[in-house]
Amino acid sequence: MSVSPSVNAGVSGHFFDGESSGACAAIARLQGNQLRLELDDGRVEHFAAAQVRLGMQVGSAKSYLHLGERAALESADVAGLQAIAEGLKAADGGTVWLRRLELNIPLVLVSLVVVLAMLVGGVVWGVPWLSRELAYQLPVALEQRAGQEGLDAMDRLWTSPSTLSEERQQALLQVMQPALLALQQRHPDHRLKVHFRASEALGANAFALPGGNLVFTDDMIELAQHDEELIAVLAHEAGHAVHRHSMRNLVQGSLLVFVMVSLTGDVSAASDLVTGVPALLATLSYQRGMEEEADEFALAFLQDQQISPQRFADIMLRLDPPSGEEGELDELSGFLSTHPSTPERIERFQTGY
């Protein structure tokens, strides 16, 4: 076995015993199949070949040898440490090969680009795909329980019993019944149920909770000027229910937290600004995609039922009338919105595609 001159002369560095923060100057030498450390305080330490592992050097930083479970030898003599590791056969061929790759700057840059591309691809396409697959595998009973708990939470925090008369509610349900029946026949795995609630906080709104619970606020009912407008809104919310968007949102949120924790190694980092902003932007993108999917579902259903898609456009114009203001602020608000822009949605229903 050939040994480099620097190893014969000894490799100078600092020894950390892993029990205290202090370092002790040391000289490392090969002694048979062991590493001999001569410490500045007169002590001599020996480490078997199996206990020695070469650490990775980043850039021009010092390198080090892992010694046992906690100790380490740090030195600026990178070549000397590598020669010791090779001599002890503690650093196998893969480690040496990896070390050489690490010093190849072009390859490092290419690897960085590949890793970033994989990360972006995973967040943009991988997380939505996996969340969709997982959401469809969840038991229906679990989704129904989540929906009931969500409805109870809404009643505690933001909604109250509807102020519409019982006769009015029954009349609305009668109007919606043919559409609900058609949807049930098309999607027998989804039990759709309409709820009416009053809410000053939510205003004119409608939303889908897990388990096929579709909620209309009283203000949304009052906003509608035609029964078919409510059918159009019902079809949109049914699209959320059929595609299990609520459950997918829950799964996606959990997956994003997992990705952020995996990248940072810190659970608390998921709420930090640096990691939280990308997660927020990804979530907004997912939600816009779900709204577009629900719009597609509603448009196809209205056309099949021979209901003019203009009905959806009409109520959307009243729900979110155009302000007539355009500019960078509007572009930013659109980028940060959970919904596609209202003009785009209206145009889609007006043109029918």
UniProtKB/TrEMBL annotation:
<keyword id="KW-0862">Zinc</keyword>
<keyword id="KW-0645">Protease</keyword>
<dbReference type="GO" id="GO:0016020">
    <property type="term" value="C:membrane"/>
</dbReference>
<keyword id="KW-0472">Membrane</keyword>
<feature type="domain" description="Peptidase M48">
    <location>
        <begin position="169"/>
        <end position="349"/>
    </location>
</feature>
<dbReference type="InterPro" id="IPR051156">
    <property type="entry name" value="Mito/Outer_Membr_Metalloprot"/>
</dbReference>
<feature type="domain" description="DUF7092">
    <location>
        <begin position="11"/>
        <end position="86"/>
    </location>
</feature>
<keyword id="KW-1133">Transmembrane helix</keyword>
<comment type="similarity">
    <text>Belongs to the peptidase M48 family.</text>
</comment>
<dbReference type="GO" id="GO:0051603">
    <property type="term" value="P:proteolysis involved in protein catabolic process"/>
</dbReference>
<protein>
    <submittedName>
        <fullName>Peptidase family M48</fullName>
    </submittedName>
</protein>
<dbReference type="InterPro" id="IPR055518">
    <property type="entry name" value="DUF7092"/>
</dbReference>
<dbReference type="GO" id="GO:0046872">
    <property type="term" value="F:metal ion binding"/>
</dbReference>
<dbReference type="InterPro" id="IPR001915">
    <property type="entry name" value="Peptidase_M48"/>
</dbReference>
<keyword id="KW-0378">Hydrolase</keyword>
<dbReference type="GO" id="GO:0004222">
    <property type="term" value="F:metalloendopeptidase activity"/>
</dbReference>
<dbReference type="Pfam" id="PF23368">
    <property type="entry name" value="DUF7092"/>
</dbReference>
<keyword id="KW-0482">Metalloprotease</keyword>
<feature type="transmembrane region" description="Helical">
    <location>
        <begin position="107"/>
        <end position="130"/>
    </location>
</feature>
<keyword id="KW-0812">Transmembrane</keyword>
<keyword id="KW-0479">Metal-binding</keyword>
<dbReference type="Pfam" id="PF01435">
    <property type="entry name" value="Peptidase_M48"/>
</dbReference>
